[in-house]
């Protein structure tokens, strides 16, 4: 047996011969072999280039890093036949252009320390060589002050041509016949329409993330969109998604979070989609996918969304590059945060304050139009009863019900402003006096028209018609009042007949020990009972718990993702929502004018008046323009 130094010398000789093309046939190969350069490049390309949209993403990011102000994308057959990206960036000289096609050659970082503070979109130096190894590749580039540019042609990773080029300043990259030398990868591509839609989605992401840059997309000689450089993010959202969506968004109210700045737009409460396709998140200008941020967004909306629905977000996070690791995956879609809990809490707090801060603008929808005439008379019912003009004897009469069954009018004994006692039901409350209605009329100038089908309160405002769901509105009022009282007075608990112990994994045990105070505020009597063992002796009285151990395991799973700002009533909110749903005003419950007015006033005072605890909207707006279109007054 040869010694270890001798084996090292043999291996060194073998590697030198391999690089020179001369192999020692008598050398016995081991099971571990070095891959040829072409195969290694194709393996690396498989991590970076998944489909034509990946090519577009990498090339656009290079253009943005090069300082481009305008980027044009041209594709054919879904990008499978051709992808061309043209920018007006800084360009490259010939040496840099040739080096850019070498693996791990980059201008973005210099040392390992730079990886801890990556401020550019690209930095790995793998995109161009990976793309060139699986396509017929052409690069033309020219600096602004250069007389001539450089043209480089690469086929399947093999350099073929390097010559002068006469293109405009900037860089053009043309990728043809993607995966022509990898048939196994090519057959896994989807249809041309699907690949085109993926490319268009990628363009949308980059355009939203960088509104100061102009973008255009040409597909099979047909212009799909052409976006000029926008002054603000709202202009770019309007250009891409239309005015109607922009009007349903709320600009984010940045909160004082140490080291984190948040901006962008989010959908109003109740505005949602069935998928996450319009839940866009950017970290330092980079579009990312993060389960941590998804959980934070969901937690921020909480009762403002229906189950199974996802919010619309254009959320931008700016933080120190040293606080986020983007070197997790070659495609750079995933990131890791140095302080994940801090990021999540900042997102939750920001969304909650933004939704609550939009209440003033939401209240404006209820203000009556100025100078609106009052319809009155014996032959015509008074459909515009207002507290400032109603006579004392009229303020207690019922609102006109706009339904064929006008004879069936029963006074509802609903408690509009009171809190429901889950064990006793609603208690009627005396209606406010006409004097108090007149006193508050200058503050809440909403104008009530009537009640449609004993369910929808019709109101008029300057924009048109407003419909309020009396059941959903009453649910929100009762929900917030009951939750507030239980948080202030404490959660009622019920002792177990026999305390029970249960074991948990070490990670769950650590989480419970750190959150014992939160669980106790929620009405759960829990304490440590040994290593990774806990004892539970009481649970909230309003919950029907048949198996305390299984109940605790579910509580731990549900609360671990909600963060440190979890309300002490989070555990019981679902039960509270169910309780108030049973006791709120139902459909076909007729309400008198003072009751309806009290309901609207209490709704406006809620923290989240936009929707019920289940996420359904409490009101909708039908604009005058929409009504005029329905009646043919406008086209």
What's the SSE blueprint?
Blueprint: H1 4-20, H2 37-48, H3 52-65, E1 70-76, E2 82-87, H4 94-99, H5 127-133, E3 136-142, E4 149-155, E5 158-165, E6 170-176, H6 183-186, H7 192-209, E7 214-219, E8 222-227, H8 233-241, H9 243-247, E9 249-251, E10 260-267, E11 272-273, E12 279-283, E13 286-287, H10 291-301, E14 310-311, E15 313-319, E16 324-325, E17 336-337, H11 340-357, H12 359-363, H13 434-440, E18 447-452, E19 456-461, E20 464-469, H14 470-489, E21 493-503, H15 506-514, H16 516-521, E22 525-528, E23 533-540, H17 548-559, H18 573-583, H19 593-604, E24 619-623, H20 624-630
Parallel strand pairs: 1-7, 12-15
Antiparallel strand pairs: 1-2, 2-6, 3-4, 3-6, 4-5, 7-8, 9-10, 10-15, 11-14, 12-13, 16-17, 18-19, 19-20, 20-24, 21-23, 22-23
Helix pairs in contact: 2-5, 3-7, 10-11, 14-18, 14-19
Molecular structure report:
This protein is of the alpha+beta class. It folds into 4 domains: 41-227, Heat Shock Protein 90 (2-Layer Sandwich), CATH 3.30.565.10; 248-357, Ribosomal Protein S5, domain 2; 365-482 and 581-630, formyl-coa transferase, domain 3, CATH 3.30.1540; 493-567, 2-Layer Sandwich (Ribosomal Protein S8, Chain: A, domain 1). The strands form 6 sheets. An 8-stranded mixed sheet has the order 5-4-3-6-2-1-7-8. Strands 9-10-15-12-13 form a 5-stranded mixed sheet, sandwiched between helices. Strand 18 and strand 19 form a beta hairpin. It has 20 helices and 24 strands. The termini are far apart.
């Amino acid at each position: 047996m040869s010694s270890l130094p001798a084996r090292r010398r043999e291996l060194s000789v073998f590697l030198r011969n391999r690089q020179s093309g001369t192999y020692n046939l008598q050398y016995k190969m081991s099971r571990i072999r070095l891959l040829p350069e072409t195969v290694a490049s194709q393996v690396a390309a498989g991590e970076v280039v998944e489909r034509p949209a990946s090519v577009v993403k990498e090339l656009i990011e290079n253009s943005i890093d090069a300082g481009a102000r305008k980027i044009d994308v041209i594709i054919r057959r879904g990008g499978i036949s051709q992808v061309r990206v043209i920018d007006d960036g800084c360009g490259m000289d010939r040496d840099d252009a040739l080096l850019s096609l070498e693996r791990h050659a980059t201008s973005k970082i210099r040392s390992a320390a730079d990886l801890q503070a990556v401020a550019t979109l690209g930095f790995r130096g793998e995109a161009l060589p990976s793309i060139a190894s699986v396509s017929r590749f052409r690069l033309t580039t020219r600096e602004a002050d250069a007389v001539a540019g450089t043209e480089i042609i690469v086929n399947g990773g093999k350099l073929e041509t390097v010559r002068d080029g006469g293109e405009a300043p900037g860089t053009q990259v043309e990728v043809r016949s993607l995966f022509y030398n990898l048939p196994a990868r090519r057959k896994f591509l989807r249809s041309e329409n699907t690949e085109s839609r993926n490319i268009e989605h990628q363009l949308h992401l980059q355009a939203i993330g960088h509104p100061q840059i102009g973008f255009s997309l040409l597909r099979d000689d047909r212009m799909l969109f052409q976006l000029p450089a926008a002054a603000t993010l709202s202009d770019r959202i309007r250009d891409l998604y239309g005015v109607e969506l922009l009007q349903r968004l709320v600009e984010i109210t940045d909160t004082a979070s140490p080291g984190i700045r948040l901006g962008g737009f989010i959908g109003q409460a109740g505005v949602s989609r069935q998928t996450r396709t319009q839940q866009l998140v950017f970290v330092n200008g980079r579009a990312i996918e993060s389960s941590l941020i998804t959980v934070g967004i969901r937690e921020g909306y909480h009762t403002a969304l229906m189950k199974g629905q996802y919010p619309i977000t254009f959320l931008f996070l700016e933080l120190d590059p040293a606080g986020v690791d983007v070197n997790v995956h070659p495609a750079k879609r995933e990131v890791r945060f140095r302080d994940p809990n801090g990021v999540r809490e900042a997102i939750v707090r920001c969304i909650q304050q933004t939704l609550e801060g939009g209440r003033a603008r939401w209240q404006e929808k209820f203000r009556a139009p100025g100078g609106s005439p009052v319809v009155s008379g014996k032959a015509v019912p008074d459909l515009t009863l207002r507290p400032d003009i109603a006579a004392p004897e009229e303020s207690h009469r019922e609102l006109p019900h706009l339904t064929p069954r006008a004879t069936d009018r029963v006074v509802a004994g609903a408690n509009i402003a009171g809190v429901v006692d889950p064990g006793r039901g609603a208690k009627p409350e005396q209606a406010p006096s006409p004097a108090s209605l007149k006193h508050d009329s200058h503050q809440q100038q909403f104008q009530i028209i009537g009640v449609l089908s004993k369910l929808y309160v019709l109101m008029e405002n300057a924009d048109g018609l407003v419909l309020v769901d009396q059941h959903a509105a009453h649910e929100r009022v009762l929900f917030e009042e009951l939750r507030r009282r239980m948080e202030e007075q404490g959660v009622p608990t019920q002792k177990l007949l026999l305390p029970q112990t249960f074991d948990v994994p070490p990670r769950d045990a650590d989480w419970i020990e750190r959150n014992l105070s939160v669980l106790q505020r929620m009405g759960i009597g829990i304490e440590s009972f040994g290593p990774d063992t806990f004892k539970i002796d009481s649970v909230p009285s309003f919950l029907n718990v048949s198996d305390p151990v299984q109940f605790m395991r579910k509580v731990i799973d549900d609360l671990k993702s909600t963060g440190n700002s979890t309300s002490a009533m989070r555990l019981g909110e679902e039960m509270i929502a169910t309780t108030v749903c049973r006791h709120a005003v139902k459909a076909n419950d007729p309400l008198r004018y003072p009751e309806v007015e009290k309901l609207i006033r209490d709704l406006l005072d809620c923290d989240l008046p936009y929707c019920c605890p289940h996420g359904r909207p409490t009101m909708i707006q039908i604009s005058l323009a929409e009504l005029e279109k329905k009646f043919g007054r406008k086209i």
